[in-house]
Amino acid sequence: MTKSHDIIREQDRRLGELMAILFEGFANVRQRFLDAGGDPRHPPSGLKGDDYMTDAERQEALTIARSLFNDEYIKSYLKNKRQNNLQPQIN
């Protein structure tokens, strides 16, 4: 494997860990929210400042996502999506 491929795999793994914070089991997530000073009568909206990620975790997730899902990746994804939409639907 190339060094570049290893870096991408490591970034993908770390992004998965960070995203897992958002999707943990309800009890763990709720406790993390309360431990961070969240209002127990107000469920978090998921917006910055009202979610389960720290600012450092949020910034790390954005940095990794931007490197993994760069312009080339997005263009390729959109091209494939357009091609699939042009294919006739067989029912």
List the helices and strands and how they pair.
Layout: H1 3-22, H2 26-35, H3 55-68, H4 71-86
Outline the biggest β-sheet: none
Structural class category: mainly alpha
Average pLDDT, to the nearest integer? 77
Oligomer: single chain
List its traits.
single chain; 91 residues; mainly alpha; 4 helices; 66% helix; 0% strand; extended
Short description:
This protein has 91 residues and is mainly alpha-helical. The protein has 4 helices and no strands.
Would you write up a description of this structure?
The protein is mainly α and 91 residues long. Helices cover 66% and strands 0% of the residues. It has four helices and no strands. The protein has helices at 3-22, 26-35, 55-68, 71-86. Helix 1 crosses helix 3 (55-68). The longest helix has 20 residues, at 3-22. It is extended, with a radius of gyration of 18 Å. The mean pLDDT is 77.
